[in-house]
Amino acid sequence: MTSQRPTTAVRTRRHPALKPLAVAVALTVGGAAAQAQQAASETADGLKLDAVVITGTSTAKSKMRSSVAISTIESEGVAAVTAASSTDLLRGVPGIRAEASGGESNANVAVRGIPVSAGGARYIQFQEDGLPVLQFGDIAFATPDTWMRADAGFERLEVVRGGSAALLATGAPGGIINFISKTGQEPGGSLQLTQGLDFDQTRVDIGYGGRLAPKTRFFIGGFYRVGDGGRKGADGAENGGQVRANVTFELEGKSFVRFSLKHLDDHTPTFMPTPVRYVNGSIQEIPGLDPRRAAFYDAAWPLDNTLTNTNGRAASNIRDGLAAKSDAFGAEVDLDAGGGFRLQNKFSWSKNSGRFIGIFPGDDVTAAPAGTILATGPGAGAAYSGNKFTAVVFNTKVDNAGLMANDLKFSRDFALGSGAKLSAVAGLYTSVQKLDLTWNFNQYSLSADQDGARVLNVPGIVNGSPGFGGCCSNTQDSKYTTNAPYLVLNLESGALSADIGLRRDNQKASGAYYQSNAGLAYDLTKPNVIDYDFGRTSYSLGGNYALSKDFSVFARYSDGAAYNADRITFFNNPDLVNGKSPTIPTNKVKQLEAGIKIRGSGMSLFATLFHAKTDEVNVDVTTNPIVARANSYRSKGLELEASARWGVFNVLGGLTYTDASQADGRAPKRQAKVVYQLTPTANIGDDLTVGVGIVGTTKSLDDGPTGPLTITLPAYTVVNAFASYVLNDRVTLSLAANNLLNELAYTESNDGRGAARAYTGRTVKASLRYSF
Questions:
Q1: Residue 746 CB contacts under 8 Å (≥ 6 apart), including other chains
Q2: What is the pTM of this model?
Q3: CATH architecture of 18-771
């Protein structure tokens, strides 16, 4: 499932074992620190502008000659294995807003002021080796990062913002995040043990690759991890791992055939918002409930009895948290087809399933009324007189979120004389996304205790009854088929590199969904039919001009769209999706960007001005009542990425300024004016690397669609620290602290009830790595 080729970038090492571990430790503490690897490069160009990239471009080319804004996070050795999550790596990428406060997955990701209006990554496509993990980025309770894990098998990340993403991926006008796998080009392996020092986590990572024969190479690797994710209330909720493998058969020239496999079986806690109080628009902690530490999985829960999609009943363990299973197979062919033509085809098939269980505050914290008793656990039946709140258990069973995707393209270069050439690329992308899931929202009364919360029997309240008034017993079994031909022309003429392209997305949806407001049974004789099809054309054009080998300017305009799955079924008029509606809502994005790339004297800079217009339709299930609405947004701003080197010191930084507004003049939810990253590192001798990774944001507003609340999310600065020491040529010891200063960093609040979510507090871990 990869299109990786040998890079033209030169990689140097100060020590054969130091560099991989410096990267590994950096990735441990999040995206900003992850990029410390680049700042620590021996080359003067810390942004690696000469590195060849393959994401968001129809032909592989260097960042210096590309007319898109793209960042790379190199990953040598084990690189990403101790990161908090796959999405956490993105916090240091300029232009990307990654709210990775929910644990291993269930993150919200946005780009350049394009909104996170509900959840997930609507306008961004998460890819593994150039193909999507899911066709839709904002499926409720089934976001793409649910079935992704960063481990020893990842070679690097390539992150494209805006621009050509609208042309080269279906439903990704905001950007592409591509996790590219190792393929055994560099022989060798590693074994790493990671242990939490002030929290419960133990993780083992292993990977190995090399040659099976002169023209055959392979890589196999994975991880296994147990723990609590940094919050004691989730003790034992982390339990699982992943194995991935690939084999590559090299043919003549650059041609090759590759096959890959992945098996994921993992359980992780989902960290939902914690009860808080709102006072004059500000967030205040409730004594005994720390949003950095609270998790309520240890509350002696009864089994959660829920309605199945066939009107049966099922019992699930709330302590299971988020369960994710995936079995995937991929194949890739890159061939010289003769006559100057090149044939490239990528194929992937995955069966994704699991269950999302999250504990969500359904109302404000209040004093328990007279007659309240402990419902379960030690002392059950004893009177309780403390504070309590209603915990709504989001329990969504994902029977199938599998995806079959195929991207076929032919390309040919045409000489134009004087060294100029025109590259023509014609492609056809096809996919089939299955979506078979069932929601249940049951409510329970819970004591307002961070440690050892208890389920309560409150007079007049039935534990395990449908929450939010029985709004959300829903089930859907559907299929979304996409066929998207595209055409791209690339011109290379001296200092000029330009491209223009068109893409036609044709999508057909079929299936049915049911809703049971009482949460008791579905009327299976009366399905809400899903039966519609539509098409939309996207386009993009851009150019890059090299004023010198160290200074380029670029500009691009694009028009694209993200499409809807369950966001236009539940809580909407059934006629919207049953074929009766003359139009199907799409989420449209138009973007204009221009920038410069410059390097010299040990420094490099990537600066981009951007302007985006977004029109969307959305359903937000975290509001009460649940609301479906349309909205439009405008955003403009500046995106900076820079690096500098002075002797043993290196600095990598980024800053994004965004001025965004909705049609009513308000700022989009949780959109700060300024988001910044700074990662200074020092290489002390040949064996020791130390540094810090700083990620921060100015304040933002979290306006809910039902108003009138206007909650201020305070500005925050999260400081991470890391160090690695090479014990000998094969063994390296590393230490990493996430949120070293224990900053209370809120990422979201919830309209209509006192609840807010924050990053986990300080966690420290140590790793010992053996290379072979």
A1: 283, 291, 713, 714, 716, 756, 757, 758
A2: 0.91
A3: Beta Barrel (2.40)
